[in-house]
Amino acid sequence: MGAVNLLFVVQRPPYKSENPRLALTHAIASQTAEIYMDDGDSVVPIIVFVGDGVLNVVKDQQAMKVYGVTSTESHIKSCLLIDLPVWVCKEDMTRLGLKEENMITDAEDMGAELKTKFVSFADIQKEMESVKHLLFF
Amino acid sequence: MGELTLGVFSSLVGSMSLDFSFKLAEAGMAKGHKVNMWLSGNAVMMAKKGQKPFKDYSHNEKLMKELMSKGMEVTVCEACAEARGYHKEDVPEGMKRASMDWYLAKTVKTDKLLHIGGE
Amino acid sequence: MMKLAVFLSDWRRTEDSFERMKAEKMGVILVGNGVYHAVVKENGKDSPVLSKAGANFYVLSDDLTTRGFTAANVNSKVKIVSYGDIVDLIMNDYEKMAWI
């Protein structure tokens, strides 16, 4: 079967719903999925934030300090750390008054080289077309 | 015949998306398809055996057991279950527990995936 | 371009992803509270969901009757389907599914 591409699409804001966090943790789980697969098979995820979901990517989240729970920001940075692409819809950022300077752009503090990509919905549509499965959260 | 994997994240009571999933699984199996189900997030409420079938609440345990006895593979997210206090000994007979990578791996071989992302 | 089945299970929600998604062949499957898109004419108008260009619309019969509606209420653009029909749509007619 080889590599199977999956697109995780997050549409909801963080914290009120467990959905965005589960999208991140499931995408990260791709790193260990090989134990259940045949030799040569793998899953290759990309996580994209669209609609109100772009609010997940706002930086300086203090969930651990306030509620003692891991922030969505730390999960997004973990994705970047393991070279899991994180894309954010530019049109939705504009609609909500968000600029790149407001967003998580990298995880350099954790040693990650990969950076967040700010893309158009047209780019996301292309990715939807190319992957095998879509997972909307 | 094909293989259909359902990933369900909706709660047992409240949205009826779990009811939808089990009825769809039943219809799929009746047509001869292999059906797998991954339960994560609030859907792990299915990982607690002995649920009473009150008429005011959704009740899927009976249908789930029937479908598992006919070959449907049902696996729940271990971490999601433990976080809610559902332990290994609580799991209905035939249901498996695994980490999230089980679901990711299923997406490789399955013909179709319907991912019901919850609320 | 892809063959995409979109499941709508909500009535009041932002459909911003849905509005922007394109497919060579798109099926819109109305389930749960999504069935209201097939039967309610707010201020006399069809749901904007039904104006998705080129899409085929389906509504789950069980979820219609659960909510007190019948075939007589369903917009002529929408085909009424059973669970078995949805299985056939998934397995035979569309490559990918998006439950949004």
Summarize the structure.
The complex is a heterotrimer of chains A (137), B (119) and C (100). Chain A has helices spanning 19-28, 63-67, 72-81, 90-95, 121-130, and strands at residues 3-10, 42-49, 86-89, 117-119, 133-136. Chain A is α/β, with parallel strands linked by helices and 137 residues long.
Structure overview:
The complex is a heterotrimer of chains A (137), B (119) and C (100). With 137 residues, chain A is α/β, with parallel strands linked by helices. Chain A has a single domain (3-136), classed as 3-Layer(aba) Sandwich (Hypothetical Protein Ychn, Chain: A), CATH 3.40.1260.10. Chain A has helices at residues 19-28, 63-67, 72-81, 90-95, 121-130; strands at 3-10, 42-49, 86-89, 117-119, 133-136. Chain A has a five-stranded parallel beta sheet, sandwiched between helices. In chain A, helix 1 runs parallel beside helix 3 (72-81). The relative contact order of chain A is 0.23. The mean pLDDT of chain A is 96. In chain B, 32% of the residues lie in helices and 21% in strands. Chain B has four helices and five strands. Chain B has helices spanning 17-30, 61-69, 78-83, 101-109, and strands spanning 3-8, 34-39, 73-77, 96-98, 112-116. In chain B, helix 1 links the parallel strand 1 (3-8) and strand 2 (34-39). The longest helix of chain B is centred in the N-terminal third of the chain and has 14 residues, at 17-30. Chain B is globular, with a radius of gyration of 13 Å. The mean pLDDT of chain B is 96. With 100 residues, chain C is an alpha/beta fold. Chain C has a five-stranded parallel beta sheet with strand order 4-3-2-1-5. Chain C has helices at 16-20, 36-39, 61-66, 83-93, and strands spanning 3-8, 25-30, 56-60, 78-81, 96-99. Chain C has a single domain (3-10, 33-99), classed as DsrEFH-like (Hypothetical Protein Ychn, Chain: A). The radius of gyration of chain C is 13 Å and the shape is globular. The model of chain C has no long low-confidence stretch (mean pLDDT 94). Helix content of chain C is 26%, strand content 25%. The chains are: A alpha/beta (137), B alpha/beta (119), C alpha/beta (100). Chains in contact: A-B, A-C, B-C.
